[in-house]
Design a protein that fits this description.
The protein is α+β, with helices and mostly antiparallel strands. An eight-stranded mixed beta sheet has the order 2-3-4-1-13-16-15-14.
Length: about 230
């Protein structure tokens, strides 16, 4: 498994309105900004908004989940419901709300046991894959474990340590969400070389960087391990 989620990158057509959306509606602060990219602080994770000017580009129509302390969930619902058509689902005793950003990403906010205030982290990222069995094999070889499988849909949820990865074959999920395409994720991991060696033959590409490895998985998603 991984020890931390360093970033999730989203592709945005225009950077300024995308930044304004997340700052205004979710009270995220800007950690750094340059001409074609900005990083917002989500706990210790960067939510990167990236104009389509480089590779990796960042994910399109990605479904991902923010965590918030359980006691703050109703405040988020009351505030966001004034401007968005929200959808809600329950998972055991925890609730999650869903709405869409300017680029068509499905944003989830879910109750957590986190301490602090506001948006405290990212606990789920959904990737669209062509072949579910192939994708599961790839990520379990990296050290992730299967948490559960869909009963009515072709999906598998993987435990990646500090967050979960869901793999979906093309479909509409809860709140009509879709899995992201060409998603770019950065993580930290111990024994990174051993993990990368296990999937080298299955990956589309593996590039060694100054601090680790950048992998392109069989479906074209980017995973940087440091």
């Amino acid at each position: 498994m991984f020890s931390s989620l360093r970033w999730l990158a989203l592709e945005v057509k225009y950077l300024d309105p995308a930044l304004s959306f997340y700052r205004e509606h979710l009270d995220l602060s800007v950690r750094r900004e340059r001409e074609s990219e900005a990083a917002l602080a989500v706990g210790k994770t960067d939510l990167i908004l990236r104009a389509p000017s480089s590779v990796p580009r960042g994910g399109l129509h990605t479904h991902y989940a923010f965590s918030t302390p359980a006691g703050e969930y109703d405040d988020w619902w009351n505030t966001l419901s004034q401007q968005f058509d929200l959808t809600e689902f329950k998972f055991g005793s925890a609730k999650s709300l869903y709405f869409y950003d300017l680029e068509g990403n499905c944003v989830e906010i879910g109750q957590s046991t986190d301490e602090g205030t506001g948006i405290t982290g990212i606990f789920e990222i959904v990737l669209e894959v062509e072949d579910l069995d192939r994708a599961v094999s790839f990520y379990t070889d990296l050290g992730l474990s299967v948490r559960d499988r869909g009963d009515n849909r072709r999906r598998v949820r993987l435990d990646a340590g500090p967050f979960d990865i869901e793999l979906w074959e093309p479909q509409l999920g809860l709140a009509d969400a879709r899995g992201g395409v060409h998603v770019d994720i950065g993580v930290t991991a111990t024994a990174a070389t051993t993990k990368v060696d296990s999937i080298t033959e299955k990956a589309l590409s593996v590039e060694e960087t100054d601090t680790g490895y950048r992998i392109r998985d069989p479906d074209g998603h980017y995973l940087t391990i440091e």
